[in-house]
Design brief:
Blueprint (H helix, E strand, L loop, with lengths): L5 H7 L5 H8 L3 H11 L5 H14 L1 H9 L1 H11 L3 H9 L18 H6 L17 H25 L7 H24 L8 E7 L1 H4 L9 E9 L19 H20 L10 E2 L12 E2 L1 H10 L3 H7 L3 E5 L1 H15 L8 H14 L17 H15 L11 H10 L5 H23 L12 H11 L7 H23 L3 H7 L2 H5 L2 H10 L5 H12 L4 H18 L4 H15 L3 H9 L3 H9 L3 H6 L21 H13 L4 H24 L5 H30 L7 E8 H4 L9 E9 L4 H20 L9 E2 L12 E3 H10 L3 H6 L4 E5 L1 H15 L6 H17 L18 H15 L11 H10 L5 H25 L14 H12 L5 H22 L6
Length: about 1000
């Protein structure tokens, strides 16, 4: 202690009221200096000083011992500064301090207790009989218990890192309880007549069974009794055959023994009771008999036990009494414990029990409950126990009692992520140490963080954590831990795989090759042998990935079987998993996500297009965790992303590939969103169209830069514009759609010929860079709708378009311009082009000749363009009542009435139907028939590509006849692949109704 004023010196040591402490010492600070220095390391120096003053007054010998022995001084000061209750014990028994410098060694075999109780030499530990009077034995038992408990507390409180040593403390207390129970049973046998005829085992449950006891805990036990065999216990002769007891009488004796044990540790006596001995976890609880035979226990668990009782049995172990009977009990109940998760609704029942526990917490304590409340110990324990019970039925490494052991096993087995397990372990140790510190203050059973400033400060200092020095620090740390535990609890405890895994049959979960083949065939796999090869490849080895696959696959196999192509689902899951290798987040996501695994299984077994696309963009699996990532991005966001990608490319090809890469991401995102029902058909079409726009935009930039560089031009001789037509212009593209375009330029110099040459080169290069390159999906550009069709120049100036439309415009070209819009290039030029074509496309009503032209052109398309060998009624685009019928009907009305009715001026087919209805050109019924057929056909086109994986050819526009393909499409449309026959029937019904409207509205009498 520094030689400054007494008050300053005491304040520096951590005394909250140094003035009062100085007065209490009454000038003896120098004499007490070593003790005061040690108290400064304690939780509450003020409390410690008061206790030690009382101790030294009660025992002058104590003062000398404290001054002479550094180890004793450290231990006594730590106890005195933390616990008023344990301090009072030292004052009552000052001789106990002499033990506190010794090494603490608590033995669960009860040797210390049995020797003190004068147990007869040669007796077996399971049936020993004390040789002392009851009252003396009870006092000895309790005194020895408290004396050893103080030794445990001394080591705990003097530890430099009590959080790290938490486990030693709990296990030592548990061992102390075990020894005490053995002593209590020996003492009880000395006073219960006929006890030699009875075998009794005390089964530890709960924290006692897991060796996780607190300083103050209820000790949960279950009693099992049996009639001893003919030789009696420990070879002692039983009474004669005539006087031998019956099983019923044996249970009565065993019950008296159990009651006596409870009285020994919990009843009135000269020394205060130790702890409540709680037997309410026994069958039937308080209403059931205190002691049952092993057979009676087994019968109860077979017929009447509830789910929570099996969870309670998870920690059962023999603590005292007949060891053979105790082992038999544990072996017998293990069968029930490790099959409990197969009970109907087991996981859901466990979760409901956790919710009930929380709801029963007193409202005033809820926010500060470190055991039962949100983010408390029970969150960790329930999480660990549920995972043990679900997965422990096949993984014996999980069959452990202690929470930290179980957490380590779950981590090593891949059931919990390493980081999550490590965090939970740290938080659990913190919470248990905090619980110990709360209880140590007054040796009272409490799990509520106090609000009193002095108590919070005392606990904070006793935690010995660098960042926790004050009560405020402790509050902050507790809130942080509470939030983190709650978050992990929700993520793991409510993991969606758990109920599914719990419901699996043993054949499902074993993955045994022979047993699996029949099971796989039975649930729909066409090639079970090949499927088993995939399973073996995924699960072989001891890697963490293989371990997690062994958890996932039994569930995933069932989910794949819910789709129309389970074999394909498993194959593509293997491909994806091998692509991902040991990527840390992939397996963790599938194991822990709320929906990702289920969604992935549905997608892989339903959509070949997506199954083949996901491994090429594996980060897309992350998108399945929620809905937000599956919604289409805005055009602004996509163009910003394109700009960012292009900024990192320094070649023309790289710029073009950036656009096509982004398009591939968009196509995949769109397909996932559509298959999972996050977006609808129109949103999917708009998103696919936006992907084409992005690709064309990048291709235009790349082509322009490449051509200009080839001509050594620093500036372009024109401004350039790409105009979308057809489904591209209408925002109605599908996966197999071509991009119809016009290429427009506006010369910036007088050399119009050179400008035209460069514009054609750029247009030609643009088409090429979108078509070439195997790394990204190609985008076919169709420029045949340009003036003069294939015979016309690929690019024209704005003035040339104006001249052409003024002199040679045909009706079909006017119709094509109805769905024209700028998609890439110069915005001002785009506005000029729209100003040019608006008077053309929305001009005067159709003349009689133009009416005939439109109808004849439509009839010629129907007869000439439909693919050969395809049943016309099943062709989605060109068949009767198909997409083309509806498109042409809307465009026909737009051509005839768009000039006088601005609401018809839209590139969207469905918006055009709405506008025509509001304008009185269509009845609501007719509009609905057209819209229903058009939407269903468009959805079918998307589903055919997604289901079959084909992106080109006539079959992508035809309703399939193949049963498997129909099942796949049905699953994509309705999630029910059994509805395969309804697909074609529904389309034919809708298209017939639409065709009747088309024939009446479009093919009516010529005007």
């Amino acid at each position: 202690m520094r030689k400054d004023s007494p008050t300053s010196a005491l304040r520096r040591l951590g005394f909250a009221d140094p003035g009062r402490a100085s007065k209490l010492l009454d000038g003896r600070i120098d004499e007490w200096e070593p003790i005061l220095d040690e108290l400064g390391n304690g939780a509450d120096p003020d409390l410690g000083l008061l206790t030690l003053l009382r101790l030294t007054e009660a025992s002058p010998h104590a003062m000398q011992t404290l001054l002479n022995s550094e180890t004793i001084r450290r231990s006594v000061c730590a106890i005195a500064a933390m616990s008023s209750a344990l301090g009072d014990m030292l004052i009552t028994h000052p001789e106990w301090i002499d033990d506190l410098g010794d090494k603490v060694d608590i033995s669960p075999d009860g040797t210390v207790f049995l020797e003190a109780l004068d147990v007869k030499e040669g007796s077996s530990p399971s049936d020993v009989v004390a040789g002392v009077r009851w009252e003396d034995g009870v006092a000895l038992l309790r005194t020895l218990y408290y004396r050893q408990l103080i030794s445990i507390a001394a080591r705990d409180l003097t530890s430099k890192n009590p959080v790290a040593e938490y486990r030693w403390v709990s296990e030592s207390i548990s061992d102390l309880v075990d020894g005490c129970l053995k002593g209590a049973l020996a003492l009880s046998r000395s006073v219960v007549p006929g006890s030699e005829n009875v075998r009794l085992t005390i089964i530890a449950m709960g924290k006692t069974g897991a060796r996780e006891l607190n300083y103050i805990s209820d000790v949960d036990v279950v009693y099992v009794g049996e009639l001893a065999d003919a030789t009696g216990l420990s070879g002692t002769e039983m009474t004669s055959d005539a006087e031998r007891v019956s099983e019923e009488e044996a249970l009565e004796i065993a019950t008296k023994l159990a009651n006596a044990v409870s009285q020994a540790v919990s009843g009135p006596g000269a020394v205060m009771p130790l702890w409540p001995l709680d037997a309410n976890l026994r069958p039937e609880g308080k209403d059931g008999p205190l002691v049952r035979t092993l057979a009676s226990h087994v019968a109860y668990y077979e017929r009447w036990a509830k789910d929570w009782e099996f969870q309670a049995l998870l920690k059962a172990r023999p603590a005292a009494g007949d060891e053979e009977l105790g082992r038999a009990y544990v072996d017998a109940v293990a069968t029930f414990v490790w099959s409990a998760s197969q009970r109907e609704g087991f996981v859901e029942s466990s979760r409901q029990m956790r919710t009930r526990v929380e709801s029963n917490i007193a409202s005033q304590d809820a926010a500060r409950q470190i055991k039962l409340g949100e983010g408390g110990l029970r969150d960790v324990e329930f999480t660990v126990q549920l995972l043990q019970l679900v997965h422990g039925r096949v993984d014996t490494s999980l069959r452990v009692r202690n929470t930290l052991d179980a957490l380590a096993a779950l981590r090593d087995g891949g059931y919990v992520a390493r980081t999550d397990a490590d965090e939970l372990e740290g938080y659990y140790r913190f919470l248990r140490t905090l619980e110990h510190r709360i209880q140590l203050q007054k040796m009272r059973r409490s799990h509520v963080l106090p609000t009193q400033t002095d108590q919070l400060r005392r606990i904070a200092r006793a935690m010995k954590i660098d960042r926790v020095a004050t009560g405020e620090d402790l509050e902050k740390e507790w809130k942080k831990v509470r939030g983190a535990v709650r978050s992990l609890h929700k993520a793991i405890y409510y993991r969606p795989l758990l109920p599914a895994a719990a419901r699996l049959r043993d054949d499902d979960i074993s993955l045994d090759r022979e047993a699996a083949a029949d099971r796989l065939a039975g649930i729909g796999y066409r090639d079970p042998a090949r499927a088993i090869d995939h399973i073996s490849a995924l699960t072989e080895g001891v890697s963490r990935t293989a371990k997690i696959q062994r958890q996932l696959l039994p569930v995933l196999l069932g989910w794949f079987a819910e789709g129309p192509e389970p074999d394909s689902g498993l194959l593509h899951f293997r491909i994806l998993s091998e692509t991902m290798g040991r990527t840390h987040w992939y397996m963790k996501l599938l194991r822990d996500s709320g929906m990702a695994a289920r969604r992935l299984a549905h997608i892989l077994s339903t959509s070949r297009y997506l199954a083949e696309a996901i491994p090429a963009l594996p980060e897309s699996v992350r998108w399945l965790e929620g809905n937000e990532e599956l919604k289409p991005l805005s055009g602004t966001a996509l163009r910003q992303e394109l700009d960012a990608l292009i900024s990192r490319r320094n070649t023309h090809e790289g710029v073009a590939m950036a656009g096509r890469y982004l398009r591939r991401r968009i196509l995949l995102r769109t397909g996932l969103g559509l298959v999972l029902g996050v977006i609808d058909t129109r949103e999917a079409q708009a998103s696919i169209t936006m992907g084409a726009e992005i690709a064309v935009d990048a291709a235009l930039r790349a082509a322009t830069a490449k051509v200009l560089a080839g001509h050594d031009l620093e500036e372009a001789p024109s401004r350039y514009l790409v105009v979308g037509l057809g489904s591209f212009g209408a925002h109605e593209m599908s996966y197999g759609s071509d991009a119809d375009i016009l290429f427009v330029h506006e010369p910036l110099s007088d050399d119009k010929v050179f400008a035209q040459k460069i514009a054609v080169e750029i247009a030609t290069t643009l088409i090429a860079v979108l078509k070439d390159g195997a790394e990204e999906p190609p985008l076919k550009i169709d420029a045949d709708l340009r003036p003069e069709g294939r015979n016309g120049p690929l690019a024209r100036s704005l003035a040339s378009y104006e001249e052409y439309y003024d002199r040679w415009l045909e009706t079909w070209e006017r119709q094509a311009l109805l769905i024209a819009r700028p998609v890439a290039g110069d915005e001002e030029l785009g506005e000029s082009f729209i100003d040019l074509i608006d008077p053309i496309r929305y001009g005067e009503p159709l003349s009689p000749g133009e009416h005939r032209d439109v109808r004849r052109m439509k009839a010629r398309i129907e007869s000439e363009r439909a693919p050969r060998g395809v049943e016309k009624t099943r062709h989605l685009k060109l068949g009767p009542g198909g997409i083309s019928d509806v498109d042409w009907t809307v465009q026909y009305l737009q051509l005839d009435h768009g000039g006088s009715n601005p609401s018809l001026r839209t590139t969207s087919t469905l918006d055009g139907l709405v506008a025509a209805t509001e304008a009185g050109l269509l009845s609501h019924g007719d509009a609905d028939r057209l819209a229903d057929a058009w939407l269903f056909a468009q959805h079918l086109r998307l589903a055919i590509v997604l289901g079959t994986g084909r992106t080109s050819g006539p079959r992508i526009d035809t309703v399939p006849t193949d049963s498997t393909e129909l099942a796949t499409i049905a699953a994509l449309l309705s999630r029910d692949h059994e509805a395969r026959q309804e697909v074609g029937e529904t389309y034919l019904r809708l298209s017939r109704r639409a065709r009747s409207v088309v024939e009446r509205i479009f093919f009516g009498d010529d005007e």
